[in-house]
Amino acid sequence: MSETWLPVPGYEDRYEISEVGVRSLRTGRLLSPQRIGGTSGSRYVGYSLYREDGYHTDTFHSLLAKTFIGPRPEGMYVLHRDDNPDNNSLENLYYGTPSENNFDQVRNGLHPKTKRKNCPRGHPLVLPNLVGYRLEKLGQRTCLSCRTAKNILRHRNYLDLQEVSDACYEEIVNGQDNPYRRTISQGLREGRYGN
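Request: output the structure for the sequence above.
Response:
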């Protein structure tokens, strides 16, 4: 933990901050942290700081970034590289976009879709039933059977998605013939490829 103390921007005459916490300049004591934010209301460590216009609550990682990294660029968030909201070391914090936050969650295996074992139609999300091997390494878990079935249904929407996707799964995994795949001769008969 760093013992470098700097004034908190906007509260320069009242508080200092380091990776250890926030302390009052008046008393020299560390403030008591509280849990704030997130869906459960207790995801992040935060502090209530006082100035002339009253108390303001902010997250510890936001205060650290504002103080040690600089002002937050517009449209950016303060992100944790390891997605651990309790790891507020300066090396773990950076400014990034919401998209970069999602990539961090995927990389760290915390994104909800990286934990799925099956697609919504029940097909196992393992090779060869994944879209793109490289995407699978990054945590992307997209069902190739369902994707193929949706392409088939684009022009034949009267078919049942579950039935077609199951046939696609059997074709991909077990090599069975897929009765829903069009051949070129079928396409010619239906007038899809010209004369």
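Residues 116-189 form one domain.
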